[in-house]
Design a protein that fits this description.
Helix Hairpins; 2 domains; alpha/beta; Chitinase A, domain 3
Length: 155
């Protein structure tokens, strides 16, 4: 199983724990009942309900394992972080010639949502920004080309 650390905020950890509780306490039971009901219909070799329920069971069990690993390897992101350099948990305002002023909140990969400005510390932009200070210029190499950002604010 994956022992890679997963950086999470308190809220993110609580969301994962709630999802795990839902998967174990509700979804697993529902799927087991669906499998039981499908078996009642007889011949399993041509039973689409049974196949569908078994596939869902595989998904649920896989998700339970993934959530369990994320939670076990969680490293909480501090709510009180330094603002003199970019680190996981900080929000950074950057400026580029191509996109103008942008804000990114640096989070762990489990909580990344680029459309909401929450980028992973493992993404090309997140990796390039880590450790930078206000005024630093950062060149980010991405498949679409190179972007140059200037760090304007860290909070």
């Amino acid at each position: 199983m994956n022992n890679k650390p997963s950086y999470l905020s308190r809220e993110g950890l609580e969301r994962l724990r709630a999802e795990l509780d839902e998967m174990v306490g509700t979804r697993r039971v529902e799927v087991a009942q669906r499998i039981h009901d499908a078996k009642e219909h007889g011949d399993l070799t041509e039973n689409a309900e049974y196949e569908d329920a078994k596939n869902e069971q595989a998904f649920v069990e896989g998700r339970i394992q993934a959530l369990d690993a994320l939670i076990k390897n969680a490293i909480l992101i501090s709510d009180h972080h330094a603002t003199d350099h970019v680190s996981i948990g900080t929000t950074v305002a950057v400026e580029s010639a191509a996109a103008g002023l942008e804000e990114f909140h640096i989070v762990g990969s489990a909580e990344a949502k680029p459309t909401e400005g929450r980028i992973s510390n493992e993404s090309p932009v997140g990796r390039a920004l880590l450790g930078k200070k206000r005024g630093d210029k950062v060149v980010v190499h991405v498949p679409a080309g190179d972007f140059t950002y200037t760090v304007k604010e860290i909070r």
